[in-house]
Every structure is written in C-alpha cells, then in structure tokens.
C-alpha cells in the first residue's frame, strides 16, 4: 500500500513537471525579458553575496573558484547593463584583493578569478589589473608541473586532471594570449588541454569523466558523466574559442570537441528542458539542476550565434532550456535547484542556490539575449 502511494505521488509530480515544461517551452523569448530576469538574478546575488544557501558554514573567499565562476557571468551582464554599478562591484573586489589570484599557484580553481581581471583590464586598460596573473602564469610556464594525471598521486591537481579545471584555468591562458599576442600562453594551453582531454574524454560518449575515479564505474547501469562537470567543460570550450582566430588550428581543435559535445547534449536533453545530473541517467536523476543546464544553454546559444550550430536543429533546445532555467528563479531573484558543491550526480532543491549557478545563468542569458535579437 505504501509503495503504491509513493508511486502515485511520483506520477503526480512527473505530470506536474511535464505540464510546466509544456507551458515554458511554448513561451516566446523576448530580449527585454531576458535583460529583466538577468538583472533580477544579478541584483539578488550581489545583495546576498555572503549568504549561506547550500550547506557551507561560512561565506566563500572572494577569490574562490565558486565566486570566480560568478564573476565570469557577472562581467557578461555588466557589459549589457545600462548601470556601471556591476563593473564597479567587480572592480572593488579586484582592488580589495590587489588583483591577486587565489592562494594555490598551480591549482586551476584558484586561477578562475583571472578571467574577470582580464575583462576589467579590457574595459579600463589598467595594467595593474593583470600584472599578478601574468607574473604567476609566467612562473608556471618556467616551472611546469611534472605531476601525474592519475588520481590521488602526489600533487595531481597541479595539472588539469579533473574536468572542472577546463573551465577554470584555460580561458585565462587564452585571454592572456589574446591581449598580449604572446604565443607562449597559447602553446602552454594547448599542451595541457590536450593532455587533459586525452585522459578524461570518452570518445564513444563524447563526454568527459569528472576524474579518473569515475572511469569504469556504473550508476544504475550507466556510465557516470556529471552534468555540471561537463557543463564546466562546454562553457570552458566556448570561453576559450572566444579568444582565438576561427581560422587557426588551435580554434579548430577546440571546435571539434565542442561539436561532438553539442550533438550529444542535444540528444540527451530531458523533455523538461534541463539535463539530468547524471547525463546518461535521466530515469534515476529526475530532479532539475540549473548550474550545469545553464552552461549548456550558454554554449549552445553561443554556437548558434556564431554560425557553428544550425538554429533550426539547436534553437528549440536553447529555448526549452532557457525557459526551464527561468522557471526556477524565485520572485525575488534567487536561482533555485543549483546542486551544492560536489563532484558527482547528487541532489538539488528549489531553495538551494550557489554563486556559480548564478554565474552560469548570467552567461546563458548573455547569449540567449543575442539569439533573440538583443543588441
């Protein structure tokens, strides 16, 4: 009797989600409404910057990767907004931290904030904003890590041996190459990115393992490909390609991976518009998750905007995905259903959020806005 009741509740929930999905995908997307929801989410996040919304006991350090991912999206919103307060907010963070990267010299997570520094440098042309990043990256190039990619070997995370890293550090190297014209940054990026991809990329599935510890493991009979982990990669590819000449061999290398992932992502999007936390395990992870899904919306919309992906084929996935993400923004601007910090498929809740989820949402909005005619 109890089992029957639980099945009945699950069926009702599934029907409700499908009904919401039908309504959200039918809605047209208007550029001014994209701007409005982005502003609401950005303002809420700034007002709650030190909030504790997913179980951690103290606010993240301003230079932590969690906030670094927020800034990646926030600076895209700042470029769209009519109000300089967003640039000023980001600039204050840089100034208060003397434009330093976070504490670990080699660790990709602690490089993430460099993406925001370089974007502010592009706006203000102030060398002090990028000098510490250049100095640290020059040191890394002169003293490259010799660590193994194998999980749990000494200093293994001094190289990009987990897929999240491909969002955190590579775009900084690409941006340094673009603003300086010094090919040494691009050469280092290519060597390390290729080594990481050779290690983590499953050619059959066109997806990345989070790290070596998930290779060969199954979850309900499916390979384990973490949604946010692959979201980090997909958005990272996009942010790297933004800095490269589309005619270059380096760009074409990243484009090849990007297209394979895009094709796979189109095939495995859920009917509700999000992507399952275990990408191949929709049946076992029905809960929406907005950080990984927002990164996919971002990357797919970017591909259409750049003439890489066919709009007729990929446009409906972007529309459905964006409407699903907007459906999880509360009335006051909090993005819900952001999976807490982790490394694998898990759980998410409507009242739990995280700064990196906001960053992903703002990144997605910046490309959806352009896709639907925003200037």
Describe the model.
The chain contains 14 helices and four strands. With 375 residues, it is mainly α. The chain has one domain: Glycosyltransferase. The chain has a two-stranded antiparallel ribbon with strand order 1-2. The protein has a two-stranded antiparallel sheet with strand order 3-4. The longest helix has 25 residues, at 2-26. 46% of the residues are buried. Mean pLDDT is 94; it is low at 1-25.
Tally of strands:
4
What is the typical, i.e. mean, pLDDT? 94
Question: How would you write the strand order of the largest sheet?
Answer: 1-2
Helix content: 55-70%
CATH fold category name: Glycosyltransferase
SS strand fraction: under 5%
CATH architecture: Alpha/alpha barrel
What number of domains? 1
Q: Which sequence of SSEs, written as H and E, runs from N to C?
A: HHHHHHHHHEEEEHHHHH
Low-confidence stretches: 1-25
Q: What value does the Rg take, in angstroms?
A: 20 Å
The first-level CATH class is given as Mainly Alpha
Largest sheet: 2 strands, antiparallel
Class based on secondary structure composition and strand pairing: mainly alpha
If helices are DSSP runs of H or I spanning 4 or more residues, what is the number of helices? 14
Distance between the termini: 57 Å
Oligomer: single chain
Characterize the overall form: globular
